[in-house]
Specification:
about 240 residues, alpha/beta, OB fold (Dihydrolipoamide Acetyltransferase, E2P), 2 domains, five-stranded parallel β-sheet
Length: about 240
């Protein structure tokens, strides 16, 4: 690839950022457009600069590397740089170009860049089998709204409703709209904690106060926040089996 690649360096350690820049000195086709030291800065920088290539640490303050990708919807041009090897499977499921385990050499770094030049602009196939092997469920959800990144602790969610191609997440007396289908979000949530009570509604069980008969043949979920939500027949069967 002969064109200049615009790169973003994301790492909470100053030494790690400086080392990446040092390794890039011999690559004249890479231009560093910004550096970030935490996940919130990273989301803003990705949104602003739309870089071709991202060097991304995983364990960082405020948002980790995977949460940054979720918040920005980024699916390509990512080279992970981390001291933790246990995230490799999940990283490649996120279409990572490469996974550099700290400390890595200039030669190993150059190999990752070689892969990047070959793969950028192509569609990297998803490795669904890897995702099935990763058991980590998110403890927080990230939502990008009006130029700001919001972090929602999963334990604070009351319920989630489908809104066309979006989901409305209700939590702690507030709500935010997230660009994601209800079915996709359901796959990310712990099935022992969240239950789909209707084709358009998922609730967190601990936010449920009780089930109440709405009519002769139907029930509703009475939530601790005072909201009543309709329950479908299949949803009733699911929730009864969990109570």
């Amino acid at each position: 690839m002969n064109t200049t690649l615009r790169a973003l360096i994301i790492d909470d350690e100053d030494l790690a950022r400086r080392l990446t820049k040092e390794y890039l000195r011999s690559h004249s086709d890479i231009q560093v457009v910004a550096e970030c030291e935490n996940g919130i800065e990273a989301v803003d920088a990705i949104t602003e600069h739309q870089p071709d290539l991202i060097f991304l640490d995983i364990q960082m303050p405020k948002l980790n590397g995977f949460e940054v990708l979720e918040a920005t919807g980024r699916k390509d041009g990512v080279i992970f740089t981390t001291a933790y090897d246990q995230y490799a499977l999940k990283a490649f499921d996120q279409h990572a170009i490469d996974y550099l385990l700290k400390p890595y050499s200039q030669q190993r770094f150059d190999e990752a860049l070689s892969k990047a030049r070959k793969l950028l602009g192509q569609t990297n196939p998803a490795v669904q089998a890897l995702l099935a092997q990763t058991n980590a469920l998110p403890e927080r959800l990230t939502v990008r709204d009006r130029g700001q990144t919001h972090v929602i602790p999963v334990a604070q969610i009351d319920y989630i409703e489908a809104q066309d191609d979006y989901v409305q997440i209700y939590f702690a007396g507030k709500s935010l709209l997230k660009t994601q289908s209800l079915s996709d979000l359901e796959k990310q949530l712990d099935p022992a904690v969240f239950v789909r009570i209707h084709r358009s509604t998922i609730i967190r069980l601990q936010a449920l106060k009780c089930l109440e008969r709405a009519s002769k043949d139907s029930y509703q979920a009475v939530m601790h926040n005072g909201i009543n939500l309709p329950i479908s027949r299949s949803g009733y069967d699911r929730i009864k089996g969990m109570l």
